[in-house]
Design goal:
Blueprint: H1 3-10, H2 31-34, E1 35-38, H3 42-51, E2 53-58, H4 64-75, E3 79-86, E4 92-98, H5 104-111
Antiparallel strand pairs: 1-2, 2-4, 3-4
Length: about 110
């Protein structure tokens, strides 16, 4: 007999052993849960200077629209485009390209990464 028919036979309710959905991540996640920290490596600084782009490490479950909203609300800047990639260590990087009227170096100095 399989487990379902045995539980019906014995008259007991079936109990889930594993949670199917995680309740820790809500669709209305806060900005600080989405954006972890800005990257300050040499290639990230080069992106900032050459392409007007700031690089952040973000939550793996965050998508591009959520990242764009979080960055624009946290730092009061306008975002042109967001590119993401998952690093081999499992963390997610977001390349946030700013509009031409906002300089990434000024925003980085305001944030405190330069």
């Amino acid at each position: 007999m399989c487990m379902d028919s045995l539980s019906v036979f014995l008259g007991r309710q079936r109990v889930a052993r594993v949670l199917l959905r995680c309740s820790l991540w809500s669709p209305l996640a806060t900005m600080t849960q989405i954006i972890k920290f800005p990257l300050t490596t040499e290639p990230a600084m080069r992106q900032m200077e050459n392409h007007n782009t700031i690089v952040f490490v973000v939550d793996v479950r965050a998508n591009k629209p959520k990242i764009k909203d979080a960055v624009s609300k946290m730092y009061n800047i306008t975002v042109q485009k967001v590119n993401t990639l998952v690093r081999p260590d499992g963390q997610k990087k977001a390349y946030v390209r700013l509009t031409p009227d906002v300089e990434a170096l000024n925003v980085a100095s305001k944030i405190g990464i330069i």
